Protein 1
Amino acid sequence: MPTNDAARSNGLEPNSTPADLALPSWQAAVKNAVRDPAELLRLLELPASALPPPARTAFPTLVPRGFVARMRKGDPNDPLLRQVWPHAAEVAPAEGFSGDPVREQGLAEHGVIQKYPGRVLLIASGACPLHCRYCFRRDFPYQTQLAARADWSAAIAALRDLAGVSEAILSGGDPLSLSNRRLGELIARIADTPVTTLRIHTRFPIAVPERVDEGLERLLRGTRLKTVVVVHTNHANELDAGVERALAALKPAVTALLNQSVLLAGVNDDAETLATLSERLFVCGVTPYYLHLLDPVAGAAHFDVDEGVGRELIVALRRRLPGYLVPRLARETPGELSKTVLA
Ligand code: SF4
């Protein structure tokens, strides 16, 4: 559980060295993130009565101040606030919702999981730049299932043991929680295998845009691997000028820059909001890729949107946007050989 995981409690990777303590700005932003729901309300000039009292759960609040600055003051229904507020509904039991919604816990061997043919997932870090309340890995046992140990040897050996793998996907947590030194070591080790493509799933450029620094750009430019970065944005208000600059810097360093969103009740479950998000992503040089139905993780039932509503939203988006700005509506079904594309 994230609670007793050092990475979860301080927002930094577990293997941080003393040299890491001379913090780059992005690490300082995570370290100084808001961890107290009451402080979040104060910063947003909201009275305690504006929202139901925060739930006490094992998944702590973590919101970088730059992300808070993009929320509307005085609005308890702000779509960014809703993504991070530990709503009282989190502790209400909900049928069909569990701690392991995609049944992946226990599958990782040395932090390596193969869900689909040809691709492997490396759980590169258990730390995140912010805690999204709907996260399907909010209960993931990172302490025992991380690829990061003293070095990456065990994970790389496990990857080499799998036949026909052409793509390595860095996931977590957020793999960009790793310092550039650690990330560089991992990329170099992967580049030394037959893998041809490196994919990075990250919320960092959105949550803490300072993470896109020259060191990261150099790493991505310098590898022989084709690089795909998939950022995670749910609402256009997340994409302010600082994020736009970060994405503009990232784009020339990678082969493809994509976005995935989660369809969330009260955040982005209407066509206008999703269309505005796609258009804003385009301005930022990012292609909309997936719109995921919520994985039924315990504590997130209040975000659930019916599949039929999701399908109708995609039809509405097709009517108003060019095809390249319409994401694919998808669901992950445990045991399937790929995600199920629904529309
Ligand atoms: S959705 Fe991503 S960034 Fe958010 S808590 Fe989960 S792993 Fe971390």
Note: The pocket of iron/sulfur cluster is lined by residues 128, 131-132, 135, 137, 172-174, 203, 232 (CB under 6 Å).
Protein 2
Amino acid sequence: MKWDAWGDPALAKELSADIKGLLAAALGVTGDAAPGPSADEVVLHPSRISAEDLDALAGAVGEAHVSAADADRLPRAGGKSTPDLLRRRSCDPQDAPDAVVLPGTEQEVAAVLAVCAERRIAVVPFGGGTSVVGGLDPERGAFGSVVSLDLRRFDQLLDLDETSGEAVLGAGLTGPAAEALLAERGWELGHYPQSFRYATIGGFAATRSSGQDSAGYGRFDEMVRGLRAVTPAGVLDLGRAPASAAGPDLRQLFLGSEGTLGVITAVRLRVHPLPAVKAYEAWSFPDFATGTAALRAVEQQGTGPTVIRLSDEAETMINLAMTEQIGGAPAVTGCLAVTVFEGSAAQVAARQQLTRDVLLAAGGSSLGEGPAHAWEHGRFNAPYLRDSLLSAGALCETLETAASWSRLPALRTAVTEALTAALPGSLVLCHISHVYPTGASLYFTVVAALGEDPLARWGTAKRAAGDAILGAGGTISHHHAVGADHRPWMSDEIGELGVRVLRAVKAELDPAGILNPGKLIP
Ligand SMILES: Cc1cc2nc3c(=O)[nH]c(=O)nc-3n(C[C@H](O)[C@H](O)[C@H](O)COP(=O)(O)OP(=O)(O)OC[C@H]3O[C@@H](n4cnc5c(N)ncnc54)[C@H](O)[C@@H]3O)c2cc1C
């Protein structure tokens, strides 16, 4: 993963002359942004960790697994939101964790936490580094230094129970590594967020991630059957049966805990046999309201697509402009919806027919397979485009929320208006990415000129959007989580008493408060 951009440098995308023309016409963006420093040129604030602290950490994990070298600190300096990437382009000294530790066992995690609690060092658990909410900011809080606790050595398929359809996966496995281990045995997890190629099993659990196949396989938190977490107060091994009435479900405390309560080391997950058949069909709707009602009908009737998503008019148009060739399919007007079906041949045929009947009755027109294949083909590449847009002088950022179906239209209007008022002349695109019987999530993409001070410009827009979301009855995050960026809205989201409950749990599990200061809990 590049330290100052998304993913694999070999996959970086150049913007075509047509797209640059579109940016100039729509946003007045004409000049390229000044390039940031290279990894060799970037200046980090010096590490604040003492030699004694490094020795103590080496005693916990072995000398080979502790480093205060800039080359190791830099890639763990934060996540991959647009503000993160903008900060990396700065030639001023940048912040980074003071050291990196890579434990390989739960005992070593416990030993690191003990050293840090005793020596007053903050700890930021680090999975794939793809947080977009400031969840990895190297905050020291009340402590003198901060270490990044990288989980990458927890990289094994620990168990596969083929009778029950459950797998235990190490927290540091990336999406592709986890799927490859399962596929060798004929199984699949089916969790495909856009950050799939880099994000980890532990990160998915810690942030309540949601993947693009959520209609079929559920959100990540719905797949979790159990987990192990090492806290400064001891180890928790949660979840022992497919369902339980043994009091409140403590797994839920760790799902979405974002490294503030403990370090997740392994997750037991529901898995399914690799699907025998996949079918694709794209749809066009005359407008977003018609398409939204159609998706609601599909979900409420339970017709069983694995993927179902709907772009608004603007996103449909932009996607079309960005995609040179959509599988030879007819031009899409109105709003594009994509459906994918997985299972046995009989299941796929039945689910597709049922879904098709509902979508046709709701005013959709089938576009065939082409655009749905094109969507799947390019689904992990959009983040590269964001880097190209930044280099071309355009700010591109996303935010997401969810609400009940009845609130969705007003929520979309409120967020769109807030963003366009804060960033006049910007493009605001929206899609429905995850559906439930009672509601759906809305995912917004904003493209605007970088302007003089893009961080301040985005900060204003983000505050306005967050206020609009809460005001319109949405949640501050459907799947990106809270981190540092959404923390100001947490009291509104869960109430003051809810905040006190979280603080009380943290005080019990992490009495010194070393775990991820400044994140999640106000
Ligand atoms: C381009 C892009 C696309 C994205 N698309 C999606 C998407 O489609 N769906 C989605 O849900 N999210 C998406 N995200 C957000 C992000 O990928 C998710 O939040 C992901 O779950 C984070 O996983 P990670 O392993 O990278 O965790 P990190 O970013 O390393 O960490 C995230 C948070 O979890 C904590 N943490 C990580 N591992 C552990 C652990 N083992 N124990 C305790 N705490 C831990 C960290 O301290 C941090 O607070 C996207 C991000 C980007 C940059």
Note: The first helix runs from residue 17 to 27.
